[in-house]
Amino acid sequence: MKNKLDHPEVIPECFVDTNLIQTLVHGTVNHQHGCNNVIGSLNNTFKDRFAIGIIDLDRVQHRKNNFFSQCSKIAETSHLTLFKHNSRSQYLITINPAIDKFILDNAAENKISLEKYDLPTDFKNFLSESKQNTSNLDSRFTKLFWGMKDVPEMRSLQATLQYLIKNKYKATAETAKRYFVGELDSH
């Protein structure tokens, strides 16, 4: 029997993204492997329903992706961009260029030691660890994400996700933007 997801409407695309998002929303989410599968879920499975997709931007050529042409950019931080579908209650968060750089940059900017979490500090080895199929269950990453809970981009991402999940069809782009840029905080 398949486990019931706490947040089936939240759809990250890679394993370490899934770990991060599950840590931030305090529950299981709908992992779909790859950007195209996330976009496919938004267009098909969740076509007429509220959903939030989370994808790395490194592999997406959004100029060539029809889904992006149906969205408006709401807000942007150093590594994150929030989009809202123009006619559906759907949101897309892109991580630029990818989750690995997002984690490493935020850890460095906020003086968080990866060694404390038994994770490599150099990009190549960190990438190797984060790309493992088991990184969604890797407690080292989960502990790191808990340790990064006060990092501004993490707080904004968490606050935005929590606002959207709680308000689903009642969420407004303007309020989502305020959470995303850190004007509002769920903590």
Give me the strand/helix succession: EHHEHEEEHHHHH
The biggest beta sheet reads: 5 strands, mixed
Structural class: alpha/beta
Low-pLDDT segments, ≥5 res: none
What's the overall average pLDDT, rounded? 92
β-strand amount? 5-15%
The strand line-up of the biggest sheet is 1-2-5-4-3
Based on CA atoms alone, the radius of gyration comes out at: 16 Å
What does the model show?
The structure is a single chain. The protein has 187 residues and is an alpha/beta fold. It is 41% helix and 14% strand. It contains 8 helices and 5 strands; from the N terminus they run E-H-H-E-H-E-E-E-H-H-H-H-H. A hairpin with a 3-residue loop joins strand 3 (71-76) and strand 4 (80-85). The model has no long low-confidence stretch (mean pLDDT 92).
From the structure above, extract its key features:
187 residues; alpha/beta; five-stranded mixed beta sheet; single chain; 5 strands; 41% helix
Brief digest:
The protein has eight helices and five strands.
Secondary structure elements and pairings:
Blueprint: E1 10-12, H1 15-25, H2 35-43, E2 51-56, H3 66-69, E3 71-76, E4 80-85, E5 90-95, H4 99-109, H5 123-130, H6 139-147, H7 152-167, H8 173-180
Parallel strand pairs: 1-2, 2-5
Antiparallel strand pairs: 3-4, 4-5
Helix pairs in contact: 1-6, 7-8
